[in-house]
Amino acid sequence: TPADAQRAELELICRKLALKPGARLLDIGCGWGSLTLHAAERHGALVTAVTLAREQAAYVRERVRERGLAERVEVVCQDYRDIEGGGYDAVSTIEMGEHVGDAEYPAFAAALHRLVRPCGRVLVQQMSRGPGAPGGGPFIEAYIAPDMHMRPLGRTVALLEEAGLEVRHTESLREHYVRTVGAWHRTLEERWESFVRLVREETARVWRLYLVGGAPAFEEGRMGVDQIL
After folding, report:
1. How far is it, in rounded angstroms, from Cα 96 to Cα 152?
2. pTM tops 0.90, yes or no
3. What is the mean pLDDT of residues 33-60?
4. Who's near 110: CB < 8 A, 6+ residues apart?
5. pLDDT tens digits for range 90-146
């Protein structure tokens, strides 16, 4: 099921980061907390979860409380540029790098380098585009993610290396996302009325169009998703 695939993806990230009980993980752009909770609960990591969204911070804090993970997880609502300290054993940033902006990406990569300890591990997962494909296009930039910038994988690798990080491994998840987007689209159609009540019909139709267009974009290599260790 899509939920099984999600758990497998989280486990893959944790294995690549070599998380062990007591390891300090910084989860930049933690979203709704799935990786934070998985790393703390399944691997015993001590996680600092960072998000800009108050709604996400409140939601993750509540899930941390429900699962009894308060001693392992700290949720911080702030900009990644304001994170102080460093020395983390591992740093993860999942589907956030597309949104920091092209001009800001070198500073973002430098922050990853600054925050991880020597010989620690950083896992970047983000969307990419094919060499001849647009970086998102006017529809995505207007209606889905106004700040999104996608580049070919090699250019992102170069930016990370220029920041002082040693790239050890890359893995494309592109084919998996053809199936993922299809599963998301089926869920949208099966629960259409509940989504319309949640966000109204115009927004639901925008996301329907995005998902319908996303599957062939991944299938044809115009868009990709990559993990960079």
Report:
1. 16
2. yes
3. 98
4. 163, 164
5. 999 999 999 998 999 999 999 999 999 999 999 999 999 998 887 667 888 788 888
